[in-house]
């Protein structure tokens, strides 16, 4: 049996998907979907849980080891009859009965994924293997949150899904970007060999409320710095570009991908592209025009440019982002001001 994936390749499936548990066909289970979100206490994961919980037919199980996530992000759901939170590390097997798996567990900020690179690669490889094993056992559909970092320091611009990337296999970022590349490979091998229903999202830089204030990624750094009246730290040369997607758009894209018919990989991101200097100037203008911008040293292998081609997401999922950077930054500023307890000055 051959099935066409969304990037046009023919993938031979040697075995049909395993039969789901008989409970899936009982009246109750037909009406309800039990959904696992790994990394559910993190930034994107907790927003995804919020959105999934809005549907009264969903039961959500969030799993997290709290390395970069926090129970606080899910506090409004703790004790809810349709919600469960499990402290668990995905490098260990997990036995639950679910219909869908959103597999997000993995530190995403470079300072955190480089902190313990061996653990990062174990999370990407062993963690994804464990979640695929779970999907295989229970017949669940599984979505992996891969990353634009699979394109490395891209030589093609903007990046289409067909581009194979330009990745340093032995650099300090490799635990994350090569880890995600192997995770994608595992997804397709389980799909071809075992007939598992897979979905792969290649997420481009995402920002929004609830990011860790000390997360270390550029948008959260600049907003926190501007609120605290500190200089905005633009890493040299400042001409490198990124494309920033607001978190509600991202969650909408992930849910559409899970519900649709296409395996992916599909880029999910906002094609609006900015240099880091432009981002700093925009944050300065919106948050506090009196703060300074300073150039600081960069880290090795920083990609010089990044912008998603989202033709596939538009055509296959009917998805495109709605929130511009200028609309999203103030929403994030409000959340950061609340958490830092620094109200906006009247004259700002
Ligand atoms: N935010 C982005 O810009 C972006 C871009 C590309 C891809 N992604 C991917 O999206 C996913 C979520 O990213 P995020 O921005 O919400 O990051 P995040 O760090 O806020 O969330 C990751 C969550 O995974 C948990 N986690 C990490 N290792 C784990 C393990 N071994 N077992 C169980 N839980 C573990 C963390 O505690 C955290 O709650 C990640 O897979 C990331 O690679 C994010
Ligand atoms: O304070 C800072 C932090 C970062 N930067 C720059 O901002 C750019 C973006 O850096 P970030 O740390 O936010 O994130 P990166 O784009 O490097 O990696 C991200 O890519 C996509 C996801 O997979 C992950 O969330 C993360 O790896 C880089 O060019 C970096 O040099 C600054 O100029 N100042």
TrEMBL record:
Pfam families: GDP_Man_Dehyd. It catalyses: UDP-alpha-D-glucuronate + H(+) = UDP-alpha-D-xylose + CO2. SUPFAM superfamilies: NAD(P)-binding Rossmann-fold domains (SSF51735). Keywords: Cytoplasm, Decarboxylase, Lyase, NAD. GO terms for molecular function: NAD+ binding; UDP-glucuronate decarboxylase activity. Pathway: Nucleotide-sugar biosynthesis; UDP-alpha-D-xylose biosynthesis; UDP-alpha-D-xylose from UDP-alpha-D-glucuronate: step 1/1. It is found in: Cytoplasm. This is UDP-glucuronate decarboxylase. InterPro entries: NAD(P)-bd_dom (IPR016040), NAD(P)-bd_dom_sf (IPR036291), UXS-like (IPR044516). One of its GO terms (biological process) is D-xylose metabolic process. Residues 36-330 form the NAD(P)-binding domain. It comes from the Eukaryota. Belongs to the NAD(P)-dependent epimerase/dehydratase family. UDP-glucuronic acid decarboxylase subfamily. Residues 1-21 are annotated as: Disordered. Catalyzes the NAD-dependent decarboxylation of UDP-glucuronic acid to UDP-xylose. Necessary for the biosynthesis of the core tetrasaccharide in glycosaminoglycan biosynthesis. Residues 1-13 have a biased composition (Polar residues). Its EC number is 4.1.1.35. Its cofactor is NAD(+). Gene3D superfamilies: NAD(P)-binding Rossmann-like Domain. GO terms for cellular component: cytoplasm.
